[in-house]
Design goal:
The complex is a heterodimer. Chain A is an all-alpha fold. Chain A folds into two domains: 1-32; 33-244, Orthogonal Bundle (MetI-like fold), CATH 1.10.3720.10. Helices cover 84% and strands 0% of the residues of chain A. Chain B is 34% helix and 24% strand. The mean pLDDT of chain B is 91. In chain B, helix 4 (107-116) packs across helix 5 (132-146) and helix 5 (132-146) packs parallel to helix 6 (162-175). Classes of the chains: A mainly alpha, B alpha/beta.
Chain lengths: 248, 239
C-alpha cells in the first residue's frame, strides 16, 4: 500500500510540474496541453479510445501467446539438443542484434495493415527475452538433481521433462514478466508503420492534426494498458509459481 | 537380499595433477563400509565414481561388483543435500525414480516406505513444509524406493542437529539392512557407530582401521565405540 501511495504522490508531483510549466511558460496548447485538458479530452473521447485500446490489447495478447509459445519451444529445443545449441544460438544472437524496429516496414508489406503485422512485431520483440530467460533456467538446473536423475537411470528427455523444465519455471516467469513490458512496444511500432486502428495509429493521427491533447490521452491510455498487462502477467505468474514451488 | 561387495581400486588425476593414487577400497557385502576423511581429501570423488557420476577427474583402475561386475542400475545415491524437488510432494519425490524411467510407480509401496520413515501424515506435503530431519527421511524413503543393492551415502546426516542425526543413523541402519552401504563421512563418531569396515583417507594414504567389536548401530556410551572414535581421531590428525 505504501508503494501505491508513493507512486500516487510521484504522479501528483509530475502533474503539478507539468501544469506549472504550461502556466508559467505560455507554451501553445498544440505543443503542450495542460493536464486538465488532456483529462477532459480523455473523458470526452473514451469511446474512441476504448475502441482503439481493444485493437492494441488484442495485438499484444496474441503476440504474448504466440511469442511465449515459440520462445518456450525454442528454449526447450536448445536445452535438449547440443546440435540445436551450436547451430541456432548464433542465429538467435544475430537476429537479436538486428533492430527489430527496422523490420516493421517489411512486415507491414508482407502481412498487411491488419493485426498480422503488429502481432508479428510483438512476437519478434518478446521472442528473444522469453527464449533466453527460459533457456538460462533450463541450463542452471541444480547439479545434485541431475546426479540423482542419473543414478536413477533417467533418460535425457525424461530428465528434461521431469526435472529441468519444472526447475526452470521461475526463470520462465521472469521472462514472461519482461515480455509483458516489451510486447506493447512491438505492437505500437507496428501500428506506427502502417495501420488504420489501434492506440499507436490514434497517436500518429492526433499528432498529425495538432490534436496534441488527444495524442497525450492515447499515450496515457497506452501506459495504463501496459501497466495493467504487466500487473496481470505478474500476478498470474507469481500465483502460479507459489502453487508450483511454494517457499522458493 | 544378498547384496554384492564392491571393489574400487585405482588412481585418478585431475587436469594432469594426481588426485589420489593406488587406492583400494572394498565394500563389505551386505554391510556398512565407512570412508572417513577430512574435507577435500577426495572421499566424495570416490563415491561419485562408484555411482557413475561426473567428477571431472580421469580414473584408471577397476570399479566392480564382486558378483557380476557391472554396477549400472544397481546403485542408489543419497547426498548431504536432500535433493528433494521443491515443486513435488513427499509422495511424488519418493516415486520420482519410476517417473524418470517412464515406469508406473508402485504407490502402495511408496506409501508404506513413507510410513516407515515416520512421515505418513506428511505424504501430501511439499518439502518446504518439512524440517531438515524430515526432508532427509523423505530422501531415505526415495533411496529405499529405488530398491538397489548398493547404497552410496555422501554425508547425508552431517547437516542435521545431533539428536536428529542419531535418529537418522539408526533409521537408515535399520532400513538399509542387507544392502551394501558406503558411507562417506568426516565424523569419526559416525564411522565408529555404524561401520562394519572403516577406511581412513588422508592426503598421504588410505588405511583400514579396526571397527568396534560390538554390533552396529552402537550405543553412544559403548566403550568400544568411544575407543574406536579416539583411534580414528588420532589417525585423522596424525597425517
Amino acid at each position: 500500500m505504501n508503494r501505491f501511495l508513493g507512486g500516487l504522490f510521484a504522479l501528483l508531483i509530475a502533474l503539478g510540474l507539468w501544469q506549472a510549466i504550461v502556466s508559467l511558460s505560455d507554451v501553445p496548447r498544440f505543443i503542450l496541453p495542460p493536464p486538465a485538458l488532456v483529462f477532459e479530452t480523455w473523458m470526452a473521447n473514451r469511446a474512441l479510445l476504448a475502441e482503439h485500446t481493444l485493437v492494441t490489447a488484442t495485438e499484444i495478447a496474441l503476440g504474448l501467446l504466440i511469442g511465449g509459445a515459440l520462445g518456450i519451444a525454442t528454449a526447450m529445443a536448445l536445452a535438449a539438443s547440443e546440435i540445436a545449441r551450436v547451430t541456432m544460438r548464433p542465429v538467435l544472437v544475430f537476429t537479436q542484434a538486428l533492430p527489430v524496429f527496422a523490420l516493421a516496414p517489411i512486415l507491414t508489406l508482407w502481412l498487411g495493415f491488419g493485426l498480422g503485422s503488429k502481432i508479428a512485431m510483438a512476437v519478434l520483440i518478446i521472442y528473444f527475452p522469453i527464449t533466453s530467460a527460459f533457456f538460462d533456467g533450463l541450463m542452471r538446473t541444480p547439479s545434485g538433481f541431475l546426479d540423482l536423475a542419473r543414478t536413477m537411470g533417467a533418460s535425457r528427455s525424461s530428465t528434461l521433462w521431469h526435472i529441468r523444465v519444472p526447475a526452470a519455471l521461475p526463470a520462465l516467469g521472469s521472462g514472461l514478466r519482461l515480455a509483458a513490458v516489451y510486447a506493447p512496444i512491438g505492437a505500437v511500432i507496428g501500428e506506427w508503420v502502417g495501420s488504420s486502428q489501434g492506440l499507436g495509429y490514434l497517436m500518429l493521427l492526433a499528432n498529425g492534426r495538432a490534436k496534441t491533447d488527444l495524442m497525450f490521452a492515447a499515450l496515457f491510455t497506452l501506459g495504463l494498458l501496459s501497466i495493467a498487462l504487466y500487473l496481470a502477467v505478474n500476478w498470474i505468474t507469481l500465483a502460479w509459481l507459489r502453487r508450483h514451488t511454494p517457499g522458493a | 537380499m544378498s547384496a554384492p561387495g564392491v571393489r574400487f581400486a585405482g588412481s585418478a588425476d585431475h587436469a594432469g595433477a594426481p588426485l589420489f593414487s593406488g587406492i583400494a577400497l572394498d565394500l563389505v557385502a551386505g554391510g556398512w563400509t565407512c570412508l572417513l576423511g577430512v574435507s577435500g581429501v577426495g572421499k566424495t570423488t570416490i563415491l561419485r565414481m562408484i555411482a557413475g557420476l561426473e567428477t571431472g577427474a580421469t580414473f584408471t583402475g577397476t570399479i566392480e561388483a564382486a558378483d557380476r561386475g557391472a554396477l549400472e542400475g544397481r546403485v542408489a545415491y543419497m547426498a548431504q543435500s536432500d535433493l528433494l524437488l521443491p515443486w513435488a510432494t513427499v509422495r511424488e519425490n519418493v516415486t520420482i525414480g519410476a517417473r524418470l524411467r517412464g515406469e508406473r510407480a508402485d504407490m502402495a509401496r511408496a506409501d508404506r516406505l513413507v510410513a516407515e520413515v515416520g512421515l505418513a501424515d506428511h505424504a501430501g506435503r511439499k518439502p518446504h513444509a518439512l524440517s531438515g530431519g524430515q526432508r532427509q527421511r523423505v530422501a531415505l524413503a526415495r533411496t529405499l524406493m529405488e530398491d538397489r543393492e548398493i547404497i552410496l551415502l555422501d554425508e547425508p546426516f552431517s547437516a542435521l542437529d545431533a539428536r536428529t542425526r542419531a535418529e537418522m543413523q539408526e533409521l537408515a541402519y535399520d532400513l538399509l539392512k542387507g544392502r551394501t552401504v558406503l558411507l562417506v563421512t568426516h565424523d569419526p563418531g559416525e564411522a565408529a557407530r555404524l561401520a562394519d569396515r572403516i577406511v581412513v583417507m588422508t592426503e598421504a594414504r588410505t588405511v583400514e582401521a579396526e571397527p568396534p567389536n560390538t554390533p552396529a548401530p552402537r550405543a553412544f556410551g559403548d566403550p568400544e565405540l568411544l575407543q574406536a572414535q579416539a583411534r580414528l581421531m588420532t589417525m585423522l590428525r596424525s597425517e
